[in-house]
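Hi support team,

I've been running sequence recovery on a batch of backbones for a student project. Most finish fine, but this one hangs at about 90% for roughly twenty minutes before it completes. I'm not sure whether the input is malformed or the queue is just slow. I've pasted the structure tokens below so you can try to reproduce it. Let me know if you need the job ID as well.

Thanks,
M.K.
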């Protein structure tokens, strides 16, 4: 047997596990840690960096790559937590892929390219691309649907991001554009506009005219693909590390491969193939499973099976679900609680509220609780239940349901009926209501609308008159007859008519299902919008209020939901937005057939998404599913919650026996530069990373008494 290599870097505050030490001290050129959720991936990356520094690597020769600014900042903080001096950490290049690409391209291009991350600033270029497609392709292809609404522009910008992540623009498509669009998984319209947009962005080919989100990463990957041996353009980074490799797509893979391929570069990456949930952006488990192994045959994989986030009961349930060999070193019983609801969605919301109240009764803070849903339409019943019970919440990335286009449209119709837009206190929401009325009315007089929405936001009484004037008479009225007829209806309807009756009539007259199918190309988006409308109608029906009182209730609810809170709130978001976060208590509602997993998506991705949601918790996981076991998500059965309990109980006992304070291995001294000769002669050693003198535990400390901290 060969003796395990002892690490040179000794972290403060933790004792590295044998698995972490194996990764920390690995000597292979390419090392990949295959981790489970909560397995301290970022900490292990930090240990790897500390070991490189202990082996005399210069801080400036280390490059640490992350996919998001949040992950970048976490890694930086973890290095400080483990005892590295701030001065040393500041010299390490810790950056995102896009920032790294921007910096590299700026050095190569010798000029600064205008960069913007705001979609509204890219709108002009997108509209120009749409005009080019209209000029060249309308009539040549069927099913080209060119729109310039804010939603259409946003959809297009998202489509070109997906295409760039997959490096889907590399071929000449002129002889097979429809086939290429189908192969790329994008609607033909978006594909054609994306090509035109990219031609505009690249200008004459010398340098791009501008860069938007991800464009620097894409441009660098494109450059590397066109230049054999182009890895030499990079600075001489001897050590490269990368966290969250499961988020990697084709563009970032090419950049990383070029970095690693340099002769004197050593690489360590961390990832969890079961956390691949961004497949629509090109992320794939194949980068961890196949691509790296094929590109770097001598790659060495190391497991990180132990989680430090949750206890054995959840770890073993996830092991049953995912087959990932998960283990837990946490001496705590992470509770897996279940509650059940009947067929009505409001009952599920009631179960969610009950779980929150139980958490608070047990003495825990609301701020440590998160409700993670599969799709945003599910938030309507939950948000309303939270508001009814006075429970504050934040929706963060997902956004609250009252600011979604389909609900804003219905709110706009109520505002016209009651001449009540002034009751909407937010200027931004007023403008969004005008946009949504135009969107679902399929009104596309954009110059007029852009000016009008700001005037209406300032003078809410203009809302009905603007649309009446815009739709009144001639061809205009025939083109948007449904919207005109519906406005006539709501202006005539008595304010004491039941709100749900009025809203259903609006939806029927506007044929909102058909409108949604025209507005939203992807079936999933159409389904979510349709379910959101249905949820809002159910809210109105359950309230049993007339139109006037329901309008008041909705506006009061918006005020409650938008209140800024520093404490006493729960988080509410889609599971996909929660990756990388952790909470003391996670509640997962609507765990039923055809909801989670969603049948519109690949089974593997859906299971990964559930795994991500369930493993965000530390102390308690509440699963809310139908009373009828046949209607429950299969994931609950696959977890074998009761079956793993005996083994988990034993594991907790085992983990408790290992508890105790972290034993110190060194005593650091307050010796300064002038003391170096004397303390060294007494047997002290110098820590090159912390820049301090120390002696090992067990050494007689009397000779060092005046330097003891």
């Amino acid at each position: 047997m060969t003796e395990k290599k002892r690490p040179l870097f000794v972290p403060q505050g933790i004792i590295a596990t044998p698995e972490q030490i194996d990764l920390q001290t690995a000597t292979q050129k390419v090392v990949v840690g295959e981790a489970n959720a909560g397995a301290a991936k970022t900490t292990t990356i930090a240990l790897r960096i500390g070991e490189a520094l202990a082996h005399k690597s210069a801080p400036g020769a280390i490059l640490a790559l992350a996919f998001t600014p949040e992950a970048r900042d976490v890694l930086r903080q973890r290095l400080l937590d483990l005892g590295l001096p701030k001065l040393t950490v500041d010299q390490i290049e810790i950056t995102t892929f896009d920032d790294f690409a921007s910096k590299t391209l700026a050095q190569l291009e010798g000029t600064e390219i205008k960069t913007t991350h705001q979609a509204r600033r890219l709108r002009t270029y997108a509209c120009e691309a749409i005009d080019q497609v209209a000029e060249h392709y309308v009539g040549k292809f069927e099913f080209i649907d060119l729109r310039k609404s804010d939603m259409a522009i946003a959809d297009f910008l998202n489509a070109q991001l997906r295409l760039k992540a997959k490096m889907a623009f590399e071929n000449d498509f002129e002889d097979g554009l429809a086939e290429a669009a189908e192969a790329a998984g994008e609607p033909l319209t978006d594909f054609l506009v994306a090509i035109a947009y990219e031609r505009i962005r690249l200008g004459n080919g010398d340098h791009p005219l501008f860069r938007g989100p991800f464009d620097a990463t894409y441009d660098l990957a494109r450059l590397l693909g066109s230049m054999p041996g182009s890895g030499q353009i990079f600075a001489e980074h001897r050590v490269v590390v990368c966290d969250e490799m499961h988020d990697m797509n084709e563009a970032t893979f090419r950049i990383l491969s070029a970095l690693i391929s340099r002769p004197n570069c050593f690489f360590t990456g961390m990832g969890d193939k079961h956390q691949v949930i961004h497949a629509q952006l090109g992320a794939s488990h194949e980068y961890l499973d196949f691509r790296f192994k094929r590109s770097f045959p001598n790659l060495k994989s190391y497991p990180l099976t132990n989680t430090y986030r949750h206890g054995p009961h959840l770890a073993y349930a996830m092991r049953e679900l995912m087959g990932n060999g998960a283990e837990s070193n946490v001496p705590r019983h992470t509770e897996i609680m279940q509650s059940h609801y009947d067929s009505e969605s409001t009952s599920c919301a009631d179960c969610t509220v009950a779980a929150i109240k139980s958490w608070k009764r047990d003495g825990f803070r609301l701020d440590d609780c998160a409700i993670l849903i599969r799709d945003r339409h599910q938030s309507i019943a939950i948000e309303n239940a939270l508001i009814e019970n006075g429970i504050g919440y934040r929706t963060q990335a997902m956004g609250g349901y009252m600011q979604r286009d389909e609900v804003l449209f219905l709110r706009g119709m109520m505002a016209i009926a009651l001449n009540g837009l002034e009751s909407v206190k937010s200027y931004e929401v007023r403008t969004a209501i005008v946009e949504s009325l135009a969107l679902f009315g399929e009104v596309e007089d954009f110059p007029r609308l852009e000016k009008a929405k700001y005037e209406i936001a300032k003078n809410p009484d203009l809302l009905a008159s603007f649309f009446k004037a815009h739709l009144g008479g001639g061809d205009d009225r025939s083109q948007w007859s449904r919207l005109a007829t519906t406005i006539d209806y709501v202006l005539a309807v008595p304010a004491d008519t039941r709100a749900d009756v009025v809203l259903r009539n609006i939806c029927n007259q506007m044929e909102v299902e058909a409108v949604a199918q025209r507005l939203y190309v992807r079936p999933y988006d159409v389904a979510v919008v349709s379910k959101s409308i249905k949820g809002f109608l159910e809210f109105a029906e359950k309230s049993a209020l007339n139109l006037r009182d329901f309008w008041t209730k909705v506006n009061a609810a918006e005020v409650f939901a938008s209140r800024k809170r520093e404490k006493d709130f729960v988080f509410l978001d889609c599971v996909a937005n929660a990756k990388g976060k952790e909470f003391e208590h996670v509640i997962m509602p609507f765990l039923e057939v055809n909801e989670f997993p969603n049948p519109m998506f690949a089974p593997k991705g859906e299971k990964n998404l559930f795994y991500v949601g369930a493993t965000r918790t530390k102390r308690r996981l509440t699963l809310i599913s139908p009373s009828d076991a046949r209607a429950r998500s299969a994931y609950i059965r696959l977890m074998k919650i009761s079956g793993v309990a005996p083994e988990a109980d034993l594991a907790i006992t085992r983990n408790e026996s290992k508890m105790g304070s972290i034993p110190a291995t060194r005593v650091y001294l307050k010796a300064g530069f002038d003391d170096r000769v004397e303390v060294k002669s007494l047997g002290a050693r110098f820590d090159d990373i912390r820049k301090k003198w120390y002696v090992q535990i067990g050494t007689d400390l009397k000779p060092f008494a005046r330097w003891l901290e």
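--
Follow-up from support: It reproduced on our side and the slowdown came from queue contention, not your input. The CA atoms of residues 111 and 207 lie 9 Å apart. No action needed from you.
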